[in-house]
Amino acid sequence: QRVRRIYTPAVRDMKRLESLTRSPIYSHLSASIQGVPMIRSYAAQETCIRDFFRCLDEHSRVYSVMLGMNRWSAMRIECVVAGFVGFLAFSILLMHKNLPISDLSLIFAYSFTLVGSVQWIVRLSVDVMMQMTSAERVIEYIDLKPEESPNVDSVVSIAPQWPIGAIIFDNLSFRYSSTAPWVLKNISISIQPNEKIGIVGRTGAGKSSIIQSLFRMAEVDGRILIDGIDTKQIALYDLRRHVSIIPQDPVLFNDTLRINLDPFGEYSDIEIWNALDEVKLYTK
């Protein structure tokens, strides 16, 4: 019982770490397979291999510790069972000296099976607790605060042609959860309509976070004014329907081309053809 009490919480935490370090391996492998042409065009094979080995090393470091903990528990359980068998042997020799050798052999044979049985019982109970880490992650998603309902009306009314394009970030701070650190701190930017700007920075500097703050994807402190209207006063459904983004990785739905161009069925075929003609994707 003492071995199990010490071993269970430690191996449960290591299983949680092992799951966290295994996810980057799958993500890196999936991204590398999808981006093979881009990797080869920029001759970035060595960089990708190095990043993959780094993720693999992080996972192997945690996994090796978990294997060591499993062997530690196995050795302790075997020592406990061996002590029990030794105590049983001496008790029989001292108290039952006339016991037939056949009965003695049978007792020892059943006693030795305790090594595997006890170890299997402890391992099974610990495995159940280890697998509960997956349930913990599911419960975390279940307990997430839901977004604003699409039926909520905006505090202010917006025109059908909104937005024109004037964007003001007024002392904006942004973070992904209430307990996470601020990703953006006190950002103030003024962008005029039809103005083209570029945001440059290293990976993790917060370029994507600025775009996500426009869509209110997480907690925002400060104000974002689009054509003079605070986005916090606009219903989330209306805001995201009127503001669009072109991601660097295009996504095609498994449906017709028309559904991909107009998923909500708001435009006629003539309007879609005209839009394709304007971007030079349609030739008569």
UniProtKB/TrEMBL annotation:
SUPFAM superfamilies: ABC transporter transmembrane region, P-loop containing nucleoside triphosphate hydrolases
Record keywords, A-Z: ATP-binding, Membrane, Nucleotide-binding, Transmembrane, Transmembrane helix, Transport
Main subcellular location: membrane
InterPro entries the record matches: ABC1_TM_dom, ABC1_TM_sf, ABC_transporter-like_ATP-bd, ABC_transporter_C-like, P-loop_NTPase
Location(s), subcellular: Membrane
PANTHER family according to UniProt: ATP-BINDING CASSETTE SUB-FAMILY C (PTHR24223), MULTIDRUG RESISTANCE-ASSOCIATED PROTEIN LETHAL(2)03659 (PTHR24223:SF456)
Name by which UniProt lists this protein: ABC transmembrane type-1 domain-containing protein
Species this chain originates from: Adineta steineri
Taxonomic lineage: Eukaryota, Metazoa, Spiralia, Gnathifera, Rotifera
